[in-house]
Write a structure and sequence with these properties.
Layout lengths: L32 H15 L3 E7 L1 H4 L9 E7 L3 H6 L4 H10 L6 E2 L2 E3 L7 H4 L2 E6 L20 H12 L5 H27 L6 H11 L4 H12 L5 H18 L9
Helix pairs in contact: 6-10, 7-8, 7-9, 7-10, 8-9, 9-10
């Protein structure tokens, strides 16, 4: 069992209030270089000359990766249509041999999007580093509503959660689903505080910490969310109970701060 530890960091802010991107090629720990190259090669094999950029974000990009806990989070831009990429996406089977080769990486995330959505990804790009292709020129951003990505679409996420729980899945899929759900809750909870705190992070403990600072009456529920993000279960009832314990409250709180998309 992974114990909850007070780890993580907030993004630094410059003198004008803009986030300083913590992701850098120089920060990547040496042991992750080989797996990153294998992931790039897989993108190149899949998309060929249409592959324009591959980006890395998260703890590996910041040089703070923890073996057997941290994921390798990548995303790519490809000069193809959204329809083509939907039909020709990377999948778990493709990544399996890399995940087996580098067992110290908890999970490898790969996704590909058309060039047309780059402007929608400025939040991601402000915390990522280009590991293949020519780096994109993007605007700086400040902590607050312009950095929100989870909360406005929280209702749609709940629909996806319900659909997945109604389907059959193996233990590995269920654990990954559990982690994904709990990370989403933590980051949604943090986004409720960001306009007031003027801080930004994606680190799970700090999301929990800031949420609990502003909503102490909900600390126990979010503590359980954090526990399951670190120690995912295959028990659907436990996952459902945790979702039911806080989702309605979050749904009622979100409209106070954001325009809600349904």
């Amino acid at each position: 069992m992974i114990q909850i530890q007070p780890t993580g960091s907030y993004f630094n802010i410059d003198t004008d209030g803009y986030l300083i991107n913590p992701a850098s090629l120089d920060n990547i720990q040496p042991e992750y270089q080989a797996v990153i190259q294998d992931v790039i090669n897989l993108y190149k094999e899949k998309y060929g000359d249409a592959l324009k950029q591959v980006y890395l974000r998260g703890s590996v990009a910041k040089g703070q990766a923890i073996p057997y806990i941290s994921d390798l989070d990548t995303f790519a831009y490809v000069d193809e249509s959204a329809e083509y990429l939907k039909e020709n996406s990377t999948n778990r089977k493709m990544r399996a041999h890399i995940e087996e080769k580098y067992d110290f990486v908890n999970n490898i995330e790969m996704s590909a999007d058309p060039l047309s959505i780059i402007e929608e990804d400025y939040i991601l790009l402000n915390q990522s580093v280009c590991i293949y292709g020519k780096p994109l020129v993007i605007p700086k951003m400040k902590p607050g509503k312009e950095m929100v990505s989870h909360a406005p679409n929280f209702h749609n996420r709940l629909v996806k959660y319900k659909k997945f729980l109604a389907e059959e899945s193996d233990d590995e899929e269920m654990k990954k689903f559990c982690t994904w759900v709990m990370k989403g809750f933590l980051r949604t909870g943090f986004e409720l505080t960001m306009e007031r705190s003027k801080r930004y992070t994606r680190d799970l403990y700090l999301c929990y910490k800031d949420f609990s600072e502003y909503y102490p009456e909900k600390e126990s529920e979010m503590h359980q969310v954090l526990h399951l993000a670190l120690n995912p279960t295959t028990d659907k009832k436990i996952i459902q109970d945790v979702i039911d314990g806080i989702n309605n409250w979050i749904l009622s709180e979100i409209p106070k701060y954001f325009d809600v998309k349904r």
